[in-house]
Design goal:
heterodimer; A: mainly alpha; 26 helices; 76% helix; globular; B: 322 residues; alpha/beta; Rossmann fold; Alpha-Beta Plaits; 6-stranded mixed β-sheet; 4-stranded antiparallel β-sheet; 11 helices; 26% strand
């Protein structure tokens, strides 16, 4: 948490320092202040999006598992008071986060061109409402989830859907009218992006296709969603409803039956698993088996969805229904993969060590003869292969692209290399955070924060290319982002001017290697006698 | 490796300090093969510290601990094969069935495939847990988890089993089953160290007892020896018919026997006192009580148990502190 606060404060300071006027006059229509305010507003939004949901997402599920939720519900406090208490504690966290940026926001006002009434206050209200809404989302999922791990993953998926994907379909569909237009309007209003664009005076994708929503619409949509989620969560905050039946533990031992039954048996979640073979790292197998998404049937579902999306995107480009070339369609494809990577990766990595310590499993591992190195490789590989399988599922899309335009085969190869390096970075950074964190929630929030700084924060700098950041600085910053390297390889609009690979690969691989070395030392130290 | 006549487990002047705090002070104990050691002490007494040293999770500040002749801190890798440790926390994994859970720990201990399958079946059989092999570990009741925990510690066939609070939170039936499992293991030649706060339960299974408070060993030896040493005075209880006789009886006993620690309960109409007097003396005391008009319903010796010994030690320590 402290690291996140320091990071937000640091970003704020750097932005102000870069654009602080050097002459004595105040520019009342200052573009300089807006150039600081805009990235700052987006950075704060990202911080709220990524740091706030982790704690409510683990809150109720962790309490239920420890048995303290039943104690709370049996206390004189009403479910509403418990719910509001949890919500308020989380919103306070967001307020602390926002308070760190106050000096920078005040500096924007002092620079001129930014007013408290038209800019600062609406931004503060939007951020606060976001914090309330995302806390409600986290609590709503937390009361339903069976584990903290699952709760975290679903919460971040929901946040991504609310903040980004709600705008996405409209960008592809274009202008709409009538009922479809109304739905499109409110779908866009769900996302804080449109509200932020209005506050910061920037033009977004939604506006270019004729859909513009204000920050007040966002407040209305957000309040409606929050109220609905709160009502739904409160219905489940009841000791009777918490009393769930234990799973029966039904297994299917044979693969007899018809051809369909035999085929199903291969991926049947109720199939009795064979023992861990000698040539596989047992820690890796354990990690796969203890994750719901690590089970074969879930992996197959996930990979199928990725493959279908990537093929659809490519078909859209190939059929010419949208006048976009391969370069243009490669951008969303890379961004989709990165979004998927950032959604699944940090929670996977952040669980590796922290949850093992939390569950008491680490102490059991310490009394076994398995070496620290084997524990580390098993854990890292379990996350690495999961993410690789998901990424590999999008390869059909790239294959079709190479078929349409054989000249880009080399570029596609470079994109794949960048993506593999991105996987290595995500896994090692989040695993390292996990090895030092005190709880899974802290590890997850910190991992999301750090990786967003690397993957999205650098793109914020890229968004402000030309003003205030020069091309050399932007290129240097993008070197630590393998997604940027992939985008520049595909000559995606806005990235054509940068030549990031292979320098970016070396830097990113060095970061991953450095994290691995520190992680190995940390695991060795955690395995040693006290 | 030690031979059969030497103790399987031996600690010598074991000390563990954390800065100024002494968690363990000069602990010397030994346990022979096939014996069950009851390791007793209040919370924070140093039991877990000792256990951690024995299983290689902590290094002693001074002194040594050996299991089957292997130094616990210097040869921690070997110790892991010799000891099966069940901590007070189960260490559950989500979405994992009991068989998969045991398979994982078997694989971690390097037990080969076919042998592992056989061993899992054996340990499930020993702990009467075969029927739960397909259940998810997180969905097991506490009693079931304890049995799976013991099965896990048995997987690599260790010589010594260290069980931290195995009976904690178990219902009476599960407690009896646990007791039977532990006695069976001892009969098979396993050496067990068991910590528990349920002392009557522990007294029924252990051969040797070590009582530790404030990091110091207060009593150690065979159960009956410890009881004799710690409870040299026998305890007697007089059950009276009338409540108003309780004070008279207590005064009379105090005058006759000159004992200080007389405890009385008017509600229960009882007077309890410790004594080392002979049976003849006590018979004459009973005669005096009856002749003074006190109506005695019962006059009997209260058999001392491990709980009394433990309370005696902890009371002694509290008195010393005050």
């Amino acid at each position: 948490m402290m690291a996140s606060l320091i990071a937000v404060a640091l970003v704020s300071c750097i932005l102000v320092l870069l654009r602080w006027p050097t002459d004595a006059r105040i520019d009342i229509v200052s573009q300089g202040a807006m150039l600081v305010f805009r990235p700052l507003a987006f950075a704060l939004t990202l911080a709220v999006m990524m740091l706030v949901p982790a704690f409510p997402a683990t809150s109720l599920v962790a309490e239920r598992k420890k048995g303290t939720l039943a104690l709370l519900l049996n206390s004189p406090k009403s479910p509403l008071e418990i719910y509001l208490g949890k919500l308020a504690s989380n919103v306070l966290l967001a307020l602390i986060l926002m308070s760190v940026s106050l000096p920078a926001l005040a500096a924007c006002v002092a620079m001129g061109g930014i007013s408290i009434r038209n800019h600062i206050l609406p931004l503060a209200i939007v951020l606060l409402v976001m914090a309330v809404q995302y806390s409600a989302v986290g609590l709503w999922i937390s009361i339903r989830a069976s584990s903290t791990d699952a709760s975290l993953r679903w919460t971040y998926a929901a946040i991504l859907a609310l903040a980004v994907l709600s705008v996405g379909p409209l960008v592809f569909v274009g202008n709409l009218s009538g009922l479809a237009g109304l739905i499109a309007h409110w779908l866009t209003a769900i996302s804080p992006m449109s509200a932020l664009q209005q506050i910061t005076g920037s033009q977004g994708a939604a506006a270019t296709i004729g859909i513009s929503t204000g920050w007040v619409d966002f407040l209305v949509a957000s309040a409606a969603i929050t109220a609905l989620l709160a009502w739904s969560t409160l219905r489940l905050l009841d000791p009777i409803l918490l009393d769930r039946a234990r799973p029966t533990g039904k297994v299917i031992t044979g693969d007899t039956g018809g051809a369909r039954r035999r085929l199903n048996y291969l991926v049947d979640p109720n199939k009795r698993k064979a023992g861990i073979p000698w040539w596989l790292n047992p820690v890796m197998v354990k990690e796969f088996r203890t994750r719901k998404f690590g089970r074969l049937h879930w992996l197959i579902r996930l990979i199928s969805v990725c493959a279908i999306i990537s093929l659809l995107l490519t078909v859209v480009a190939a059929s010419g229904t949208v006048n976009w070339g391969v370069e243009r369609i490669a951008g969303p494809l890379v961004l989709m993969q990165m979004a998927l990577l950032l959604l699944v990766g940090p929670s996977l990595g952040a669980n590796l060590i922290a949850s093992e310590i939390e569950s008491g499993g680490w102490q059991l591992l310490r009394v076994t003869p398995i070496s620290a190195l084997r524990i580390m490789t098993g854990k890292l590989m379990s996350a690495f292969w999961t993410l690789m399988l998901v990424l590999m599922a999008t390869l059909p899309g790239y294959s079709v692209m190479s078929y349409i335009q054989p000249a880009i085969s080399g570029q596609v190869g470079n994109v794949v290399i960048s993506l593999v390096i991105a996987v290595a970075m995500v896994v090692t950074i989040s695993a390292l955070v996990s090895a030092f964190a005190r709880s899974t929630a802290v590890a997850t929030a910190t991992s999301y924060g750090l990786l967003l700084v690397v993957f999205a924060g650098t793109l914020l700098i890229w968004l402000a290319r030309g003003k205030p950041f020069g091309p050399v600085l932007v290129e240097r910053v993008l070197l630590i982002n393998p997604a940027a390297a992939a985008l520049s390889e595909m000559k995606t609009p806005g990235f054509e001017q940068f030549n990031l690979a292979p320098t970016s690969w070396y830097i990113c691989l060095s970061i991953a290697a450095g994290c691995t070395v520190i992680l190995a030392l940390r695991i060795w130290s955690l395995s040693r006698p006290d | 490796m030690g031979n059969d006549s030497s103790p399987v487990l031996q600690t010598t002047n074991l000390c563990k300090r954390y800065g100024d705090f002494t968690a363990l002070d000069d602990l010397t104990i030994h346990v022979d093969r096939g014996q069950i050691l009851g390791f007793i002490g209040p919370n924070g007494a140093g039991k877990t510290t000792t256990i951690k040293i024995l299983v290689g999770l902590s290094r002693p500040t001074s002194g040594s601990a050996h299991i089957a002749g292997v130094n616990c801190s210097e040869q921690a890798a070997k110790i892991k094969h010799l000891v099966g440790y069940m901590p007070d926390r189960f260490g559950s994994y989500d979405n994992m069935r009991v068989r998969e859970y045991l398979d994982f720990f078997g694989a971690v201990f390097g037990i080969a495939g076919a042998q592992r399958r056989k061993r899992i079946e054996e340990v499930l059989e020993i702990t009467n847990a075969t029927y739960m092999q397909d259940k998810f570990v997180e969905s097991l009741s506490h009693g079931m988890q304890q049995r799976v925990g013991i099965a896990r510690t048995l997987l690599h066939d260790p010589e010594v089993l260290i069980l931290d609070e195995p009976a904690n939170g178990l219902d009476p039936k599960a407690r009896i089953e646990m007791r039977e499992i532990l006695l069976r293991l001892a009969a098979e030649g396993k050496t067990l160290i068991v910590t528990s706060h349920i002392l009557p339960e522990l007294a029924r299974i252990c051969d040797t007892v070590a009582i530790i408070t404030g990091g110091k060993l207060r009593a150690f030896g065979k159960l009956d020896e410890v009881m004799r040493d710690l409870c040299p005075m026998r305890s007697y209880e007089v059950q009276l018919v009338a409540q108003e006789d309780v004070r008279n009886a207590a005064n009379l006993l105090q005058e006759t026997l000159q004992v200080k620690d007389i405890s009385l309960s008017e509600q229960e109409r009882t007077v309890r006192f410790p004594t080392s007097e002979s049976e003849h003396e006590l018979a004459s005391v009973l005669g005096k009580l009856v002749s003074s008009g006190v109506q005695v319903a019962q006059f009997r010796e209260v058999v001392g148990d491990l709980e009394d010994a433990f309370l005696f030690v902890t009371r002694e320590e509290a008195d010393a502190k005050s």
